[in-house]
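To illustrate the input format used throughout this study, we show a single complete record. The first block contains the structure-token representation of the backbone; no residue identities are included at this stage. The design step must infer an amino acid for every position from geometry alone.
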């Protein structure tokens, strides 16, 4: 009977974290049959059942939970020792990042460039999404590190602040010349679950005239819509500097006092040394919120 190896323990831990053999296979870059075979090898070696089926997923048995609790710090310590011995340069693995459009356009490019230079063995998978969905993916284990609008209040998440972004009301110069908000305008906002949308609703509730509230989940597309004369929008200031400088947009109303905080986040209790190193690097980033 073949002996247990590090990859057996890694497989066990990722199934426990993600809840399905399929998710663990995707995370480890292998197939579901290979994951099933590894689990059988562990169970045959130890003579115990580690998982039981529950709906579409699996849950650990009592002895399986104990094995995970005992092995997780051992595997993390082994990985830390390897990283320390190689001064991190030899670190390998796939890290799944999530980011909103604002972070993707500001601090993320520099972060990726630094990781590519310092950790050449690390592969990054980047997904752009809204804050609410990114948080779900992080808690579900399908993202390792996310950059999102905060503040985030969740016992399952550890965060680090990376700065704030101001918001500005903008419209096309022709729209402003025609009276701007002196007449009810269509207003545009990013997704309804975004903190920016909540600020917009508060502004409208304070009496800002408007004809309708329209939603577009892509800021660059919204810039084109508003520059074309289709109303006004509340934009993150970092995303519209070029359009302002080019004269495509102009200030249509005083800016809100509230600014949007951004945070880097990982799961609470994360022990993977590579993810912790990435989080440490992310915590040093700063969203460019000047202006």
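Output of the design step:
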């Amino acid at each position: 009977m073949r002996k247990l190896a590090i990859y057996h323990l890694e497989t066990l831990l990722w199934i426990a974290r993600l809840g399905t053999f399929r998710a663990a296979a995707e995370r480890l870059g292998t197939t579901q049959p290979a994951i099933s075979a590894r689990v059988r090898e562990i169970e045959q070696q130890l003579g115990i059942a580690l998982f039981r089926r529950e709906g579409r997923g699996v849950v650990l048995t009592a002895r399986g939970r104990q094995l995970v609790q005992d092995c997780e710090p051992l595997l993390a310590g082994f990985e830390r020792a390897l990283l320390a011995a190689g001064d991190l340069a030899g670190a390998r693995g796939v890290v799944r990042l999530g980011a909103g459009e604002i972070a993707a356009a500001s601090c993320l490019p520099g972060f990726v460039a630094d990781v590519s230079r310092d950790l050449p063995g690390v592969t990054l998978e980047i997904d752009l999404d809204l804050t609410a969905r990114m948080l779900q993916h992080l808690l579900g284990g399908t993202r390792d590190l996310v950059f999102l609008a905060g503040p985030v209040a969740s016992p399952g998440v550890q965060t680090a602040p990376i700065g704030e972004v101001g918001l500005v009301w903008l419209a096309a110069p022709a729209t402003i010349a025609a009276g701007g908000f002196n007449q009810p305008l269509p207003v545009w906002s990013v997704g309804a679950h975004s903190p920016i949308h909540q600020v917009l609703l508060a502004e409208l509730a304070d009496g800002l005239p408007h004809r309708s509230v329209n939603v577009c989940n892509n800021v660059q597309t919204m810039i084109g819509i508003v520059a074309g004369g289709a109303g006004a929008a509340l934009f993150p200031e970092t995303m519209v500097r070029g359009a302002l400088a080019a004269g495509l947009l102009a200030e249509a109303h005083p800016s809100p006092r509230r600014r949007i905080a951004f945070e880097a986040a990982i799961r609470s209790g994360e022990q993977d040394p590579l993810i912790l190193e990435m989080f440490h690097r992310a915590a040093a980033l700063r969203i460019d919120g000047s202006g």
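Structural context for interpreting the output: The longest strand covers residues 157-165. The mean pLDDT is 85.
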